Input
Amino acid sequence: MSNKTFFKQVGGRHYKTMKIQPSQFINENNLPFAEGNAIKYICRHKLKNKKEDLLKAIHYIEMIIDRDYK
Output
């Protein structure tokens, strides 16, 4: 995938100021869905949905714990 694709954002501007796009980091490190979403929500919380995004990140982390550490 090209860097141009990673810097395209449909809706909002909350990722535009980041040195590394969360999607690029997630893809280049082959992270699973839940880990990727947790990272995405942590990265954007101050610029978008504040506490709600952190609660979403916690939810995904809880999913990881349930999945991997029963």
In short: The radius of gyration is 13 Å. The chain has a mean pLDDT of 88.
